[in-house]
Amino acid sequence: MDAKIGGSGEALSVGDAVLRPVVRDGHLWSLGDVRVRGVPLRNPAARFLPWFDTYEGDTFRRFEFRGVSRRGGELVVHTQALSDPDAMFRERRDTSGDPCFRDASWDAPPQRAEFRIVFAPAAAEIDGRAFTGFKYWFEYESARLPIHRLLDRQTWEIGGNLDDVTLCLRHWLIPPRQRVRRGTEYSTALLVKQFGAMPGNMWSRWTVLPPFDMQYGAAGVLLAWFDRVSLIRTTVESQRGEDAIRILDLHLFEQAARVCTNPKTVLWCPDRLDDVDALNLWTRVQDQEQEKACRQFGMATEEPPAVVLAHNAWVNVRFDRTYERVIDVAGEFGADYVFIDSVWESQQAFRERLEADLDGQAGARDPIYRKFRHLNMCCTLDYEVAQIYGGEAGLKALCARA
Fold it and tell me: How far apart, in whole angstroms, are the C-alpha atoms of residue 167 and residue 214?
């Protein structure tokens, strides 16, 4: 190894980037402060360090620091990962779906594996804007402990804190552009906050979540993307009182004893964007990433998407009157389609049919009807057009009017 750091805060240069990893008592505590051309990209008070485990429950979150070396143009931080023998459960489940206990003593010595964090310089030009920074990835090796997933626990805050950070992230549960402050509660897993439900705690990149990160503020613009399409499930969060934005990228892969994760590129640009500039840049990066994904799989480039207006009423849908306004607006703006509620016989249609049939009848107020938990239109009972909405004839008439 031709370069070493012996303690906290010593600088590691990677192109225009400088990192100051934190080493405590011989262990790598965090990747620490990260700057590009002197501009901080994250708050070093929040730890930046991965987590991973084996299918049998060996959990790794401690890393003995072994030094730093240069490998061509790459900088390699060498560690030995140590498992936590006190972790009681494994990923494996029993036939009831419950987690299984680990088949090892909680007083057993920790398992060990070679673990490297690799950095390389990176740069890009997007829409006439010059970006510079680095890419990084993780390398795992073990003779006897294969792993199947690795959680990259990062925080990124352009300027080094939440004084002036706006996230640009288009996702169906959150605004496409949002200023995140220390008092902001932000999460891409928003359903758990709204309904106590959690379908999609970690959405997949390249699907519901975009394959890249973007934020901007007085300190410039921060972008981050991956080398290629792979299975990465992500949550982006910040709780009230935090001075950080947590980005949890869960890399999932075929179980193996040697693993190299999909590299993530982190770039900075000094330009200050207004909100319109930001959405335009987001769109350019989205186009770039879409083209990259199509090349990877040999897919034809998509045509521009259709213009779609959506109107979800959820309850009391009637084909003869619910969608008149949205059809008029769609016609005014030349939209291609109108997205409406589910037309099928569903639990919502069943509920409305039941209420209509019981209306005015003796016993209609029997408390038993309030004890039955009806679900919504997402719960299809049969793929027939619901009669209470207007049936097939009503749906055909609606389509004809559109």
Answer: 6
